Amino acid sequence: MTDSRRDRLYEELSRESRRYLAAYVLFNQAIADHLGLHPTDVQCLSLLTAEPGPLTVKQIADMTGLTTGSATRLVDRLERDGYVVRSPDRQDRRRVLVTPVPERIARVTAVWDDLGRSWQELLDDHTEDELEVITRHMRRAHDLSHAQMRHLRSRPKPE
Q: For the whole model, what pTM was predicted?
């Protein structure tokens, strides 16, 4: 029996997903290079600005998969460059919160806004129903990626 249409679509989707992910990693590197930042720093800023409030270094470590030591060094770099500030948590004085600095984040946002017009045009020919499907897929892919990262981190590294 020949491959079903669904099998062929899964294969095509797998190939295009790999290409998309590789392109996004390289795109992130180009933005980081343009801004004079490390790619992980750019992603951390993206995650920080997507959250409703400040985060602890531990939360940043958990979100990025970095050790707390590496996350501390990342926050040190961002703080030194003026992108974030540290402040004591008013609810728990033992904790320190990391907050993006809006004026400095505007530098990154300006690059995203300039490039974002093309991304918006890419989505303009989709119906609202299709945009809902894409959004649902992205949300589910995000959750699955984090579950897969936890799984990988729990396993021994291959020899």
A: 0.79
